[in-house]
Amino acid sequence: MEQKIAIIGLGYVGLPLAVEFAKKEFAVIGFDINETRINELKVNRDHTLEVSSEALENVNTLVFTNNEADLKSANVYIVTVPTPITKHKSPDLTPIIKASETIAKALKKGDIVIYESTVYPGCTEEVCAPILATKSGLVFNKDFFCGYSPERINPGDKKHTISKIIKVTSGSTPEIANVVDNLYNTIITAGTHKTSSIKVAEAAKVIENTQRDLNIAFINELAIIFDKLDIDTTQVLAAAKTKWNFLPFTPGLVGGHCIGVDPYYLTHKAESVGYHPEVILAGRRINSNMGMFVANKLIKLLALNGNEIKGAKVLVMGITFKEDCPDIRNTGVINVINELKEFGLNVDVYDSFANKEEVKKEYDIDLIPEITEKYNAIVLAVKHNKFNALNWEKIINKDTVVFDLKGFLPDNIVTARL
Predict the structure, then answer these.
(1) What is the pLDDT of residues 214-225, one digit of tens each?
(2) Going from the N-terminus, what domains does the chain have, and what CATH number goes with each?
(3) I want to staple 123 with a disulfide (CB 3.0 to 4.6 A). Which of 119, 289, 317, 325 is the partner?
(4) DSSP 344
């Protein structure tokens, strides 16, 4: 049977996936509940900058819609909606549940539903499949089937694009696992890795980012220790990296849609079966508190430089969760900003990559359109390459405290590094 694919959710993951399938001339329906998003894609514009206008113009088998009725013509559904956490640090399955309910209205005998959203092990078969069955009246693994293939999109990365990253695949039966694996093999030039079960694939995804979170937490803890010992962490890491098997992690603010979120999916599942994970949660606490550490360090630097703290003017450069990317989800920079404001500092935020409307809606911050004055302190929070072109002589004076969190700026203007 010819496969017609519906991609549910057209963000950083879904849109590149839809385009890749369309390049191979699959009939693809790109579905998103956000009408504004659909309208921009219809005119070949992607505000996430993951897909170029030219690429969108050159795919003829991809249609965009927010009409649920259009999904009925598909027979393969791929769910790429976000899976955030609540304010209490527990999984928020609302988007994936609503996506499953939407698909169930269109589900037919023989259809396959593949999930790419990050979940805890067991979620696809324990939460999603029952919703699909109940809402459609069909029987799981008899009338319809499921697969899980965790997304590995790295926002802003133009080198490790979707087709160049090995894809983990799985299916709810051995036969469906083969179908899912073959489907992805049509677009993934790097190849696939078929797992023995959906749970294995789900677990593989959630530990990928948990591992990175823990490694960064270790380096962040070292940075805190070395700061107290008056040792330059950057120099320590440069020396340590001369050993062939030293892992090249650096200290910093942890944010984004994965690293700061995925560990909570694993710890939630662990606690549901009676195990309290200590190492994972310790790493999360260290990384979550780095914003407080950075703010306190800046206050000390200002005081040592003879500045009045209350009312001091601070420029935070960058609010996206990573460099050269407009994604502001779960950015660790916001913790620094909020801490500095609590100290009574006047904080301006500059980031030409970020969408000012999104920043205002999400964080109630008005980005400054350009840097027009000098500040008591500058915090380099995100190493956007565009910052290289700035004329630093117009931004700083001899008394300006420059705190470089990314090891990005030239030594002659930096007061301190993280």
Answers:
(1) 999 999 999 999
(2) 4-203 (3.40.50.720), 233-417 (3.40.50.720)
(3) 119
(4) T
